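Appendix B. One record, verbatim.
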Amino acid sequence: MSTSKPKVLLLGEIEHAPAQAAYNSLSSLADLITPKSTNPADFLEECRSGAFNGTKAVCRTFQSVSITGRIEGEVVQALAEAGVRFIAHNGAGYDQIDIPSCTTHSIHVSNTAPPALSAATADTALFLLLGALRNFNPSLSSLRSGHWRGSPPTALGHDPLGKTLGILGMGGIGSNLAHKAKALGMEVVYHNRRKLPDDEEKAAEVRYVDFDTLLGESDVVSLNLPLNENTKGMIGKKEFEKMKKEGVLVNTARGGVVDETALVGALNSGQIASCGLDVYEDEPNIHPGLIDNPKVMLLPHMGTWTVETQTEMELWNIANVRSALETGKLKSQVSEQKDMEDA
């Protein structure tokens, strides 16, 4: 019987010392390998060459998409043929991976879900919410150009107190944002695939509504849901027409959830008042209509951009790999695979 250890393929780099130590400790369980390729075409060829044969788990970063391309189609098949049974993805969103294809090829996929991720992303959403609602951005620009509040001064903003926040996606991030918004005196409504249990709703002081009601009642709509076939482009022209004219859209989820051309149209026509965005349809490219609009709050995908959160995410991802090697199960398997048989 062979006693050779399985392999773990690292895609991307581990950047924080505690996580690097945790990853190195996996060497007692597996041989740790990295690809030689630096682009998707070469990576697929390397997969097919047998270089990764015997690999049980892949530990990947969001940035590694530049090496592999989207994990789908021929790449999934080649990884499965090399023996891969687990992909541990560092990030809450995992639209870079074709989950149905992985499931078909018996590859289990996890994402990162530490509390710090939810808190940091909710903090970012709150920053964008306040900036857009209070109309801070025009004065930030005029101040840096030496014109104080501008001439004429920027229009008055609005207080969050007494306003309604509508959260689309009441998972960890949405729940954390709801808690913080309540401290500002906001009423919180939400829409989810599944309504929360009554006791959880009561404890969180939130109210479930249908999608159209959320759009119509909310002063601020926050997107906190994954990008998939069901959510791609779900906020478009028809949805903006259902929002309040003084309404604000906040997106810290994925850019593809929003039709950016429709968003620019809604802003320019006055259909909605403003928006706060951390994510975009075609990152790092941003629609010029958003760049040119002084009322819009923009961040370059910084929802989890803190030392503490990035470190905890790396540690969580590595813990998924360790769990796969030791138990044959992932610590935080993606929801689409909840009924999948163990590897």
